[in-house]
Amino acid sequence: MDLPFDLPGRFWRGNLHTHSDQSDGALSPDEVCRRYQEAGYDFLAITDHFKAKYGFPLTDTSHLRTQTFTTLIGAELHAPRTEFSSEWHIIAIGLPFGFPPPEPGESAPHLARRARAAGAFIGMAHPAASLLTETDADSLDAAHAVEVYNALSAREDRGDSWHLTDVLLNRGRRLGAYAADDAHFQPQDPPGCAAWVQVRAESLDPEALLTALKAGHYYSSTGPELHGIRLEAGTVKVRCSPVRKVMVTGGAPGVQLVEGEALTEATLPLAMFKDGYCRVTIEDNTGRRAWSNPVHLGPQAASTTR
Known about the structure:
This protein is α+β, with helices and mostly antiparallel strands. It is 16% helix and 31% strand. It has a 15-stranded mixed beta sheet that branches. β11 and β12 form a beta hairpin. It is globular and about 55 Å long. The model is unreliable at 300-306 (pLDDT under 50).
């Protein structure tokens, strides 16, 4: 995954995990899209539960696309089972209309492979809330990314899934990391528009966004902005909106950390991560965070600019 900051185009803000009244959400697809558009989002994927009791919906929002706002077609797929849950939760963005429902007894890995073969971006939804084990997650070999932060799951203190993601990355999986709302807009739920991705693409065309997602050309946030990440002479140079912490973690225990008031730049060493991987986290003075995708290092990292 090349870091996206110097690539052609611009960043587009979007949510990859959302529900409407076509499954268990409270609002119509039109109203859900309206709320995100009014909150300043550039795109949205409504991912209703792809289950028989809802009629296996692939919620069509294509009529809501404009020159300044677009939608991606997707669903949350389900199949039995994980070690501690009766069903899987798999995000599939970019599914074609007419995607066949699961066959009786179809496994989650097979379903995810079938969705990926149909052109979809595949994400492991809320691993912490689903209590996914490493064995569970490793079996989902079609996944492009892990949902490392889920705003709805944060209500039960299981919003953050970085630990499992770091284990998978250390085991050799090449995975992106995205944040999402999982908004249902039910009365008991937290409000939407709390976690998102910033996708680097040359246009707001759905196919351009989908291609960028599959390539890992995005970062995730609950508030602050990443403006640049550059590898240079054994260090990582970070530019961002004002924050109180800039952290680099990755494939080794420990952290490289710079703390201060209204930091907008930081340079941190990479030696502790050797030829593994690292990731950047920034945190603002309200505790909101943003995360880069994992950056895979190698002998050339000391002299590579990305």
